[in-house]
């Protein structure tokens, strides 16, 4: 059974038909990177996987359970999915440690001592042992993003969703976050990552999915999709992102 299975997913905002029939799966332990132009529906797709957006048509199965079924216990399903956004969404009034414990206690009903222990272990995993008592305002963007990752990991997710986790960061801070993500992938975490970091996708992804205009245009191993794309739209996109100074002939 696939960890995530998406069948004929359609999502519109008003008359803007954003997702136009998406079919795809994520297997246990797989790292899938989603690439594509701005507005192609990448974030919307990710948000449908934990039902932050309600699709109009189609189904999303997580561990075999149809989370688009109105009878599904959404809170239970969501517990197993960690999400890391471009903006870190930390609680500004809570310390780093508290940011990583609050949902463990309220949602998973863990005892505070156990939650603290798990949070500290995950903060160590992302290299932030010294910052447990700091507040978000005292951290760099890269550190805040690593707290957001530790917070998500503290919920023992079966799946981690990342939506352009490095695109709000200063260039010199990107590497630390990608290093943490690379380590997670090596540890066997199942990850669905929207990213513009082609080098990362090439190195870490088991599969790359190229989206354009609300459909999957092409998918496969990174050496194929990034290294030797077959579709014209993929080639055009890659020329643009790999060489931003490139001007398309008119
Ligand atoms: N909550 C919303 N309400 C209305 N329209 C939305 C909403 N979210 C997304 N859209 C629209 O859906 C389309 C796809 O947006 P989406 O954010 O999924 O694209 P994306 O591929 O993630 O782009 P980017 O690379 O810029 O993040 C866009 O036209 C956008 O304006
Ligand atoms: Mg987006």
From TrEMBL:
Q: Which compartments is it annotated to reside in?
A: Cell membrane
Sorted alphabetically, the keyword list is:
Amino-acid transport, ATP-binding, Cell membrane, Membrane, Nucleotide-binding, Transport
Topology relative to the lipid bilayer, per the entry, is:
Peripheral membrane protein
Q: Name one GO molecular function term.
A: ATP binding
Is the Membrane keyword given for this protein?
Answer: yes
State the source organism's domain of life. Bacteria
Keyword Protein biosynthesis assigned to the entry: answer is no
Domain annotation ABC transporter: ranges: 4-238
Concerning its family, UniProt says:
Belongs to the ABC transporter superfamily.
Q: Please state what the protein is called.
A: Amino acid ABC transporter ATP-binding protein
Q: Which organism is it from?
A: Kribbella deserti
